[in-house]
C-alpha cells in the first residue's frame, strides 16, 4: 500500500470506527478519495495546492459530473484534508474556499398516491409465495414509516415486539436512534412474513437475527431489496424506475400533503435540519399547482395558448 492509499485507509477507518458513519457513506467517501488519488498522480496528497484542486474539479466536470456530485466530492476531500491537518500531515487545506459549479436543485421524485396503491395493492396468486410475502412486508414498511434502505436492511427480528405496538426503532445517520409509527397494513404484512420467515432458515443460519432473509437464510442485502422493488414496479406497470428512497420521498410527501405538519415529518424522517424536510413543501406545492391548473376555470389554458 502506497503512502496516499495508507492515509485514505486510515481516515476511512476512523470514520467507520469512531464517528460511526454508515457503510454507504464510507463507500461514497472511498470512491471520492480514489478520484483524488488518481488525479494527483505522482504528487503526494499533502503537497497539493488549491490550483491543483480547481484543475481536478474542471477535469471531473469534463467527465460529466454534475455540480451536485462535485459538491459531494469536494466535501469528502475537504474533510480528508481537515483530518490530515489535525494529524500534522498537511500544512494547509487546499480544498478550503474551492466551490463547485452551481447546478439546478432537483426535487425528489415521489410516487403519486395512485402509483403507491398500484405498487402495494393485493398480490393475488403471489400471496402464497414466501418471497412475495417478504417483499410485501418490506415495501409496506418503507412506505408506512419512511425508512432509509440501510435502516430497513439492518432491522432484526427483535423489532417485531415494537411493531406489534405500532412503532419501529431504527438507527439512522451517525447512529442516531429514532422511533417511527408503523401503519396497520404494514403491521399485517410483517406479521404474515414473520409467520413464515422460518421456512428460509437453514441449519447453518438458524440463529440469524435479521428480520428479512434471503433464499440462503442470511440477511437480505440492500442490492437484493433494490432489485426486488424494481421488479415489483415493472410487474405493476409503473412508468418510472422505483427505488427504495422514492418510497421514503412518497411517505414524506403524502404525510405532508395530508397533515401539513412539517416538524412531525422532520422527526419521522430523522432529518437533523428542517431545511432537508422543506424540499417536500415544494413537492406539495407542485401537487397543489397541478390541481389548481386542472380545476380552476381561470387557470385552464385557452386554445390559442396551446
The shape, in one word, is globular
Quaternary structure = single chain
> Going across the major beta sheet, what is the strand order?
1-2
Number of discrete helical segments: 13
- How big is the Rg? 23 Å
Tell me how many strands there are. Answer: 2
Order of helices and strands: HHHHHHHHEEHHHHH
Largest sheet: 2 strands, antiparallel
Strand percentage lies at under 5%
The stretches of 5 or more residues where confidence is low (pLDDT under 50) are 302-306
Mean residue pLDDT: 87
- The helix-and-strand class reads mainly alpha
Helix percent band: 55-70%
Organism: Azospira restricta
Family: Belongs to the 'phage' integrase family. XerC subfamily.
Domain Tyr recombinase: 106-293
Active site: 148, 173, 245, 248, 271, 280 (o-(3'-phospho-dna)-tyrosine intermediate)
Structure explained in plain terms:
- There is one protein chain.
- The protein has 13 helices and 2 strands.
- With 306 residues, it is mainly alpha-helical.
- Strands 1-2 form a two-stranded antiparallel sheet.
- Strand 1 and strand 2 form a beta hairpin.
- Helix 2 crosses helix 4 (67-86), helix 6 (130-145) packs antiparallel against helix 9 (184-196) and helix 12 packs across helix 13 (274-295).
